[in-house]
Write a structure and sequence with these properties.
The structure is a homotrimer of 423-residue chains. With 423 residues, chain A is mostly helical. Chain A is 67% helix and 1% strand. In chain A, helix 8 runs parallel beside helix 15. Chains in contact: A-B, A-C, B-C. Chains A, B, C: It comes from Neolamprologus brichardi (Fairy cichlid).
Chain lengths: 423, 423, 423
Amino acid sequence: MTDTNTNMRLKLPITCFILEIILIILFGVLVEYDKETDARKWHHSNHSEYDNDFYYRYPSFQDVHVMIFIGFGFLMTFLQRYGFSSVGFNFLIAALALQWATLMQGFFHGMHGGKIHVGVESMINADFCTGSVLISFGAVLGKTSPVQLLVMAVFEVTLFAVNEFILLNAGGSMTIHTFGAYFGLMVARVLYRPNLHKSKHKNSSVYHSDMFAMIGTLYLWMFWPSFNSAITAHGDDQHRTALNTYYSLAACTLSTYAMSALTAHDGKLDMVHIQNAALAGGVAAGTAGEMMLTPFGSMIVGFLAGIISVLGYKYLSPILESKLKIQDTCGVHNLHGMPGVMGAIVGAVTASLKSASYQGGIQAISLAVTLGMALGGGLLVGFIMKLPIYGAPSDASCFEDSIYWEVISAYYDEGQSSLVLLS
Amino acid sequence: MTDTNTNMRLKLPITCFILEIILIILFGVLVEYDKETDARKWHHSNHSEYDNDFYYRYPSFQDVHVMIFIGFGFLMTFLQRYGFSSVGFNFLIAALALQWATLMQGFFHGMHGGKIHVGVESMINADFCTGSVLISFGAVLGKTSPVQLLVMAVFEVTLFAVNEFILLNAGGSMTIHTFGAYFGLMVARVLYRPNLHKSKHKNSSVYHSDMFAMIGTLYLWMFWPSFNSAITAHGDDQHRTALNTYYSLAACTLSTYAMSALTAHDGKLDMVHIQNAALAGGVAAGTAGEMMLTPFGSMIVGFLAGIISVLGYKYLSPILESKLKIQDTCGVHNLHGMPGVMGAIVGAVTASLKSASYQGGIQAISLAVTLGMALGGGLLVGFIMKLPIYGAPSDASCFEDSIYWEVISAYYDEGQSSLVLLS
Amino acid sequence: MTDTNTNMRLKLPITCFILEIILIILFGVLVEYDKETDARKWHHSNHSEYDNDFYYRYPSFQDVHVMIFIGFGFLMTFLQRYGFSSVGFNFLIAALALQWATLMQGFFHGMHGGKIHVGVESMINADFCTGSVLISFGAVLGKTSPVQLLVMAVFEVTLFAVNEFILLNAGGSMTIHTFGAYFGLMVARVLYRPNLHKSKHKNSSVYHSDMFAMIGTLYLWMFWPSFNSAITAHGDDQHRTALNTYYSLAACTLSTYAMSALTAHDGKLDMVHIQNAALAGGVAAGTAGEMMLTPFGSMIVGFLAGIISVLGYKYLSPILESKLKIQDTCGVHNLHGMPGVMGAIVGAVTASLKSASYQGGIQAISLAVTLGMALGGGLLVGFIMKLPIYGAPSDASCFEDSIYWEVISAYYDEGQSSLVLLS
């Protein structure tokens, strides 16, 4: 793959323009305001303006929105020379994915007289689906071109909506993390680079890039209660989901710090663990959070999720790379994969305990279907992404902004390594 | 202009103290709680505590507040040595402007028995007016003293409130961007510096300053739906405005990335475009967003706004500087000026289509009045700001924090350029 | 204290695991959902889902949550080599404190049939109590191990809840700042290090660390209206509190800038003042904010708070260190201590004016009790923290991340100071 290949002058504009024009046409044909956003439909019914769902969902939507663009975007800026791409490609593919998800979710989840209805609920669902794509992005971070990522987003959003359709929306939050993680891991497997060691020195953080990543971590951590509760039923359900997630995350943070120190020879905390594993409690409480899990149950779930996640970063990720040839840049298997599966199991058990075992069975089947769809879909889409036409970086130029971004020249002054990252 | 001249030891405290004492006195004489914030007035009526407008406006207010202080503040930190001033002067003039705007907007928009009423609506309107001042700040960024900026804020807020008064609030969001941009451009024209090339090497970004600027960009992008909808009518109107803005921004992001790659010889993305042009969709949907523009219409508007804005940065800004002698540091003409005018035209057309052409005519007249007021006001205020008494920086010390801020000494170690920005 | 001593491999995991397991057990025994989060209790009553308090408190809670984790966390990242610890230890002790506070506040403020009820109100109160601990953290920043901080958090939360119990919650927001500040100052006094000058060169900021700190400052500033109003009565009270705080902060910002320039020989602004003193208006309006203080009164309070705070940083902090042997790293006395006392006095006076002097007397007594509890508690807990078993850093390795965190090696390349903070 040569420099000419990675030149985006035509590839990226053509892809963006075609996709956006298709989106605009399909929106023109298929999309209309729902009852809560349409002037006539809304005023046709007899209710207070204050009953509009905007007031009961929009604050949660904005928290989710911050998680998608700031949370995921900055979480991935930990790489020393890949900050522009992390936050910038996150921005690009999220902007595409939320539009495409609106269409796909609307199409599969029920049209209204041939039309897709949009409002704050569709915005939240579109952001959720986008979150799944961004999780997959984490697995291939640094090794893909923006065009490749846009292609991935289109296919992944479609398959995610199909998966939701099959599950009749029974999977809830679990599907976001589990689907995103295993889809991304399978794509990373197909895109395996045996000579990735050529850019190994750039596949690490520097002091300030770790600080930027903490902005992403904290916004994800703080707003995860909103994420899990954004679309649950109004009233006590939404309230309880936020509360359970809050406790799960708090307990997870304590076990993450404990495990990070315990697994280091010199007892020093590792920023990778703090930035990622402390969030596993939010993932693991995703399915059962709306049930009567209790704060006690939530804390146990979060506590275990933190332990599992740190152990994954420390011991499992190296094995995934050496044995299974999965180069998982952000360790999404440890943050979204295992905790997502754990969350599904907790959900199945909690549902069985509280109601009929029937509910628990549905949760278990949902997990199996999601894993199958994610792995199969990732395999397929991975091969589509492997076509040598998207301008992917060479093995030596992975984890490097300057391939796709204008970066000031002193950035490259290798003779004076002190100039790196400076003017 | 000498170093003694830029010494702020007396100039800044005197200006701040006089302005704040005047504000306090005028607030004491003129301002009182509105019905929703006054204990007696509120409890006099018979309604639920939950009907207080606080619950239906305050979350939107907080989003707007974040845009004003973090959004605008960090968006301007892209300059390598001007981060303290960008975020710090933004903070100072915003804190002044929101107080002054409360008085001016209250005075011109209707007193109640000789009193100005305040509550969450006045807070949102004051923040909006402040936004207009911060847009103008972007045009003169790096070339002005804090005292000069405070003077600009006082006059601009006053003229902005007069403009709103003339338009009977018909202009809406459009006036914020259009007024702020053309006012600022005219001020920049009057303050033209033929020898600005002396500090040219500082008028650019470094790697980390671009990362900080992305924080500003993303908060503006995420919360723009709240900005456009914060003050629209409750119910479907507010809901629809947020929805339309969301789609306009998403489409704008795709066209911005496309145009940024397309207009670069090597196809590399330019951070200036991503940081700014991707926001043009929010500006352009500002007027028509509350109308039945539809997601389809919103996406077309955003798509075109992104294209126009990138083209402006690439081809128009150099011409503005060389031909019209307007040194527009942040390119506010491309982000707020042209997209603001475009938004006004879209609003006029949409209003004409959906209702009477009468409405469209009002929108068109509003645009003309706003442009006239902004250019005339900017001319006048520019000359007031040109008086050599405010401690403006010399041509060689523009875009430089150390003129007005304590900065650690190693920052200046020019002999070792590697020390710049470090200890 | 040797390097072996600061090794956290066993100390930190044991502390975290024991504390979290105790918490989980106590939550299992004592905690249950309140009426608003429990499926049965909520549906037992006859009301609309929209009446759930979630919709009237949760947006405020999220603002407070951001202040706790981003606000306090990043405000303390100003130190050049202590960013990981500032934001990371803040994260750890806050995650512990909010769980412990839920138990202690629930226990002291009223059990329901032997059970502690949790919901959004308890979440806000727990975050408030956590804020008090983080203020104390600011006083000892850079000189303590994470285990020491966890021990401090457990004791301080307990004493804070006892203090609230004694005051019958009459103190409100004032207690958070006053208790946190004087408790922390007393701990700092007990932990006095006569040889702290050995790490003096690291007890200062660099350019980018000051930029990160401004993120913390601005989030605290923007969301302080939510902080002061989060738990006040619904309706006009909550609305008015937010409004008053907004004006107090705006006025405070003007006086802070004025005083910062005025007290500098060369008239240059000092980032320490801007980052901290501009927030004093939020503290000082904490008690009287919910009363009929009026915007006029709020602005006077904020204006004076900014002046007092800058003067404290400039003239009082050096005296506190040299005469009273209190090494207050973040100057919490100037941001939370004096403005907190001022706020209590303003509250007492306002209460006396508007209602009976009886109310004013209660406020005055509350202040005295809080100061006594904070100083006495800080003394006791300071001695507990002084035990040489927690792995505190040596005098020469204070303000240094690498004691407790994995930091890339080039960070330490003292021979090439340009490499510090880089790869």
